[in-house]
Design goal:
Layout (H helix, E strand, L loop, with lengths): L2 H21 L28 E6 L15 E4 L4 E7 L4 E8 L6 E9 L2 E4 L3 E2 L5 E8 L5 E5 L4 E11 L15 H10 L1 E5 L7 E3 L2 E3 L4 E8 L2 E5 L1
Antiparallel strand pairs: 1-2, 1-4, 3-8, 4-5, 5-10, 6-7, 6-10, 8-9, 9-15, 10-14, 11-12, 11-15, 13-14
Length: about 230
């Protein structure tokens, strides 16, 4: 191919490349896995589901008032789910702690902070001061959570911290903590998401703290998230 044709080809391919980048998911960092393949989920340690408690969750039943702010208080986790009101223009957060598999220590598992919920599916745009009920559901087997309402969009992204310390170091689930787990933690482990039950899992950008055994990520919207490799 001569120089003139090469330049023409480049001019044709560049807009296609920019279009592909613009259409990609804002949080995705790699191609999603095929539908038949899921990542290796990190599991909670122990033979029974861990015990949880929460800080910043609603302390009573929620009435049918989807845009009315409510006070926040402490609450024991009920059926692995907690709820709190996120208000546009105000910082609101919820924290979930877990009891260690030996039952002698309590540590943070999840912390979700929001300041700018902007759009709620089925309701529309939120004005400053409006609020939306957010529900966080914890998987009792895998270190995985669901954030609802699915499709909730933020102006300024929310921040999610998820700890994998509850696996007690056994990241591949073989019952032994060894160099293989250390290699998984340092080279493979990450935070993944999917839009719904019929969607594929995709890894998203997240900062890892080896000291705290956690990942922190900014969320432009809600879906399902898991610590996986």
């Amino acid at each position: 191919m001569d120089r003139k044709n090469r330049m023409a080809a480049r001019r044709f391919l560049l807009p296609l490349a920019l279009y592909a980048i613009g259409c990609s998911h804002p949080t995705a960092v790699q191609q999603p896995l095929p539908p038949s393949q899921a990542p290796h989920f990190v599991r909670w340690a122990g033979s029974s589901p861990p015990q949880f408690s929460s800080i910043g969750a609603l302390s009573g039943p929620v009435s049918g008032r989807p845009l009315l702010a409510a006070s926040l208080s402490s609450l024991s986790l009920d059926e692995y789910s907690v709820a709190f009101w996120a208000v546009r223009g105000q910082q609101r957060s919820v924290q979930i702690n877990y009891l260690s598999s030996t039952g002698d220590t309590s540590s943070p598992f999840l912390r979700l902070t929001t300041t700018d919920p902007a759009y709620v599916p089925g309701i529309g745009d939120l004005a400053p001061g409006d609020s939306v009920l957010i529900t966080v559901s914890v998987d009792p087997v895998n270190i995985k959570v669901s954030l609802e309402p699915t499709g909730l969009l933020f102006g300024e992204p929310g921040q999610l911290l998820v700890s994998y310390g509850g696996a007690d170091g056994d990241l591949n689930g073989d019952g032994v903590v060894d160099d293989v787990d250390a290699s998984i933690e340092s080279q493979l482990l990450g935070l993944w998401y999917r839009e719904g039950q019929d969607s594929t899992w995709t890894r998203i950008p997240a900062s890892q703290s080896l000291l705290d055994k956690s990942f922190t990520s900014e969320l432009p919207h809600f879906s399902e998230y898991a610590v996986s490799w």
